[in-house]
Structures are given as structure tokens and as C-alpha cells.
């Protein structure tokens, strides 16, 4: 078996990124990753999540599930009981989000099917030419 010539996974020291373009790029990539991981957790565990980040140029970015009101109310009233109306609103919001996710998944399946059919048709045309 051949040995690898790479150094493998190396620990990178924590330091401020001085190049402004690299800083913006890094922020954007990490923000997308953070939102994706939060979405994955929401799908698995049905949790409420709120994320607020500020870009290097002090622009705010936020991600809340199910709504900002629900997350903020939960944060400020840790020990208070939720009202029946509030629980119904949260449940209704979660149901709508799941329905939209199912619709999105179905559309992605249809898109993939159409893409595959188009590819098959063009390859058949090329075969006969």
C-alpha cells in the first residue's frame, strides 16, 4: 500500500484573517454552513432555533425557526408556561413548514426526473446521428 505524501489534517492556529476578501469569503461560507447545520437539527429534532450573526462589515444576518416571535418569546420567558394559543400557533407553523418541505422534495424529484429524461433523449439523438 502506498503512503500518502500529504500532511493530513493539521491544526490551524486561531488568528484574525487580515485580507478583507478572504475575511468576507470565509464569513459567507461559515454562515451558510451554520444555517445548514441548524436546518438539519430542526429536521431531526423539531427544535426552535434563533441565530443572529454580523458580517465583517456589520451587516446583520438572521435565521429563526419556526418564527422570530416564538424563539424570542421562549428566550425571554424561560420559566413561564406557554399559552394554549401560542402552542397552537407553533404547531400550525411546524405543520406548514413540513408541508412545504414535502412539496420542495417532490419538486426536486420531478426536476431530477426531467433532467434524466432530457439527458436520455439527447444521448439517443446523438446515437442516431
TrEMBL record:
Coiled-coil residues: 90-117
Molecular-function annotations in GO: DNA-binding transcription factor activity, RNA polymerase II-specific; protein dimerization activity; RNA polymerase II cis-regulatory region sequence-specific DNA binding
GO terms under cellular component: nucleus
Domain of life the protein comes from: Eukaryota
Segments forming domain MADS-box: 7-67
Primary location group: nucleus
Biological process (GO), any one: regulation of transcription by RNA polymerase II
Subcellular location: Nucleus
Keywords from the named record: Coiled coil, DNA-binding, Nucleus, Transcription, Transcription regulation
PANTHER family from the UniProt entry: MADS BOX PROTEIN
Name the record gives this protein: Mads box protein
Record lineage: Eukaryota, Viridiplantae, Streptophyta, Embryophyta, Tracheophyta
Amino acid at each position: 500500500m502506498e503512503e500518502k505524501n500529504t500532511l493530513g489534517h493539521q491544526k490551524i492556529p486561531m488568528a484574525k484573517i487580515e485580507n478583507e476578501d478572504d475575511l468576507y469569503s470565509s464569513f459567507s461560507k461559515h454562515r451558510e454552513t451554520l444555517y445548514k447545520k441548524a436546518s438539519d437539527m430542526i429536521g431531526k429534532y423539531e427544535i426552535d432555533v434563533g441565530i443572529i450573526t454580523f458580517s465583517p462589515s456589520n451587516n446583520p444576518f438572521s435565521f429563526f425557526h419556526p418564527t422570530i416571535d416564538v424563539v424570542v418569546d421562549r428566550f425571554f420567558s424561560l420559566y413561564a408556561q406557554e399559552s394554549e394559543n401560542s402552542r397552537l400557533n407553533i404547531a400550525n407553523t411546524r405543520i406548514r413548514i413540513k408541508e412545504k418541505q414535502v412539496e420542495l422534495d417532490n419538486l426536486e424529484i420531478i426536476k431530477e426526473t426531467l433532467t434524466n429524461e432530457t439527458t436520455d433523449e439527447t444521448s439517443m439523438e446523438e446515437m442516431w446521428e
